[in-house]
Every structure is written in structure tokens, then in C-alpha cells.
Design goal:
The chain has 236 residues and is an alpha+beta fold. 27% of the residues lie in helices and 16% in strands.
């Protein structure tokens, strides 16, 4: 466990502290190491994009590429101020970037809500600038939304999940939920890392709190989540 962490890694950098980055995008493999799909856009017609930060992106990416209906995945950096950062730069805490998983999915086969279910259940969204022993702003929890529908659903499911966390005696959600900023692809060796390194680092920081198996499967799941949260509030 890393007991000593540079204090700069535990706060967002000031403008004068941020690293400048570069204009050149990181070269990445053209094909997904698991399913052969394109890692970079353009993506197939009819697909949608979801982006999540939930700690170390190696294990998080694997969670999503295993989900039926997901067309391709990639890892990168988002939510900070340094363009096209390197992994080493992100680790300094001077980019503000979050380790982020991009999930390209077919909404006819898997709903955005089902992806949110994986997100909420498979990490601890209450830890701020950390996940377990991984400390630093790059590990903070985030949902980067594309469009009002995703924003509403993410917020509604956050409220519903908070009720379950509270009932379990767990703290307040610190997850950032906001419109998707620029996504910068991470280095090629990070892409599908656990496919290339099956015994690689893959901590599990799940809280053990879950949502019903069918909670997000039908159309109107955002409204269902909002209605559930409202009903709980009115019952107090």
C-alpha cells in the first residue's frame, strides 16, 4: 500500500500548475485485442458512447468488454486540462485527468442503464480522489454523459443507488456527473491490458451494494429510477 502520496495528487491543479500536454494524439492499435472491432471512431452506425471513470481503467475496461451488446471499448484520459497526456504525466496529478473507459454499445442489445448498473456496482463511488490503495485524482469516480437523456439517467440512478448505500451504512457518493469533455486515448499498452496480461493488477473495490437485476432493462429506466428515488424521499 502506498502510504505516502504527493499532496498535489489529491487536489485539482491550478492553471499555472497544469502540464501543457501536446497536440499530437497518442498512437493506439487499430483493432480491439479481444473482439477485433475498431478502437477509434468512426464507430458503427446506430451505436452510442458511454464513458466512465471508476478507478484503475485496466479492470474497468474488462468489465465492459465482457457485456453482450458492447461493440468496442478503449481506455483514455478525460476530465482534466492537459491535452493528450502521457500516463506518467497523469500520475503526477498535474493534468487533472481521470482514467476513463470509453464504451461503444448497441442500444438495441444493451441499454445505457445496464452499463450504469455495472458502473455503480463494480466500484466504490464514495471515495473521492481514490479507489482503495490507489490514491490520486486520476482514480476519482465519474460519469461523462452524452446528451440530456444520459445526464438524466445518470443522475437518477445516482440518487437511487445512494438510497441503497445509505441503508447499508455507506457514505455519500462523490461521483462527478457532467457532459463528456475531450477524451484522449491512453497509450497502446493500456488498451485491453488484462487481455494481454491476464494476471495483471485488477483490484475490486465494489461495495457489495446492488440494484435489482431488471432495474435498467426496459425503456424509460431513467424515469423508473427517478420515480423510485422520489418515492423513497416521500416516504421519509
Amino acid at each position: 500500500m502506498n502510504w505516502f502520496v504527493d499532496s498535489r495528487k489529491m487536489r485539482l491543479p491550478k492553471p499555472e500548475e497544469a502540464l501543457p500536454g501536446r497536440a499530437t494524439a497518442m498512437p493506439v492499435p487499430g483493432q480491439h485485442a479481444v473482439n477485433g472491432a475498431s478502437v477509434r471512431p468512426p464507430y458503427p452506425a446506430g451505436t452510442e458512447i458511454a464513458e466512465f471513470g471508476m478507478g484503475c481503467f485496466w479492470g474497468a475496461e474488462k468489465l465492459f468488454w465482457q457485456k453482450p451488446g458492447v461493440v468496442t471499448t478503449a481506455v483514455g484520459y478525460a476530465g482534466g486540462s492537459t491535452p493528450n497526456p502521457t500516463y506518467e504525466e497523469v500520475c503526477t496529478g498535474r493534468t487533472g485527468q481521470i482514467e476513463t473507459v470509453r464504451v461503444v454499445f448497441d442500444p438495441e442489445l444493451v441499454s445505457y442503464g445496464e452499463l450504469l448498473k455495472i458502473f455503480w456496482e463494480e466500484h466504490d463511488p464514495t471515495q473521492g480522489f481514490r479507489q482503495g490503495a490507489d490514491k490520486g485524482m486520476q482514480y476519482r469516480s465519474a460519469i461523462f454523459t452524452r446528451g440530456e437523456a444520459q445526464q438524466r439517467e445518470a443522475e437518477a440512478t445516482r440518487d437511487a443507488f445512494q438510497e441503497r448505500l445509505t441503508a447499508a451504512g455507506i457514505g455519500q457518493i462523490t461521483t462527478e456527473i457532467r457532459p463528456a469533455p475531450d477524451f484522449y486515448f491512453a497509450e497502446g499498452y493500456h488498451q485491453q491490458y488484462l487481455q494481454k496480461n491476464p494476471n495483471g493488477y485488477c483490484p475490486n473495490h465494489a461495495t457489495g451494494v446492488t440494484l435489482p437485476a431488471d432495474f435498467f432493462k426496459s425503456e424509460g429506466s431513467a424515469q423508473r429510477a427517478a420515480d423510485a428515488a422520489k418515492a423513497i424521499q416521500q416516504a421519509r
